[in-house]
Design a protein that fits this description.
mainly beta; 19 strands; 39% strand
Amino acid sequence: MRRLNALSTVLALTATISCSDRSSPPTALTPSATPSFGKPAPTTIAVTTTIYDRDAGSNLLITRGDNPAAGFATYAEVNKMSSHIGDTGAWQLYIGNQNVRTVYLALASNGIPIPDGYYSANVEIYSQCFDVANAMVGIVSLTSAGQSNGNCSFGMDFTSGRTKYKLAMVPTMPGTGRALVTCNAATSGSCRDWTIVPNPDAPNAGVANLYHYTNNGGLVLDGVYRNSYSVRITR
C-alpha cells in the first residue's frame, strides 16, 4: 500500500471508537488514558474472546493469537486482562501490563514497518458498530442468529520499542475499510455469540491506517496498510 508522509500531520479526533476507559464515552481513535483492571462495571458484559490465526480459507492473518499450535487463542476477563462489551456496545480486549498473554502481529512481513512478534505492552483491540448515519450502536443490537452489521470498526493499540501505535479501520475514517460483525447464536432475543472479520464487500476492504502517538497523546498518520483478523466473542 502507499505510504503517507505524516511527520507534520497530527489528527484532530472526534467521536467513534471504543477504548478501555469504562467511565467515559469513547472518542474516535483516542485510546484509554488509564485502563481499569477490576471486575467489569455494571454496564459492561464480560465475554470470552477467541482470536484465530487463519481465515476461513486457511490463509494466515495479520492479527493472531498466542497459541500457534492450536491455531487460535482464548482470552477472558481475568487478572489484569479485560474482555468485555462496554456501555456503548463496543467489544474490547485489553491484555497490557503483563507478559503472560500476548497477541501475535505479522506486521513487517505484510509491509508494515514494525517488527513481527508477540505483543503485550499496551495491547488493546476493539470493535464498535454504527448505523447507516454512523451513530454508534452496540453489537448487542444484533438479536438473532444470522443478523449482521457490516458498518463496524476494528482497531488495535500496541507498543513496539518506545513507540505506541494504532492500526485501525473505521467507517468515519475516509479511505479505510470496515469490519463485519455477525451474530451466530441467540437466546430469547439476545445474541450470545459473535464473529468479527473484515467486511469484504465494503469499500477499501481490509485497509487500515497506521498511527503513532505523540508525547502529548496526539496521533500522527504513518501510512495506509492492511489488517486481517478473525475474532469470536461469546458470553
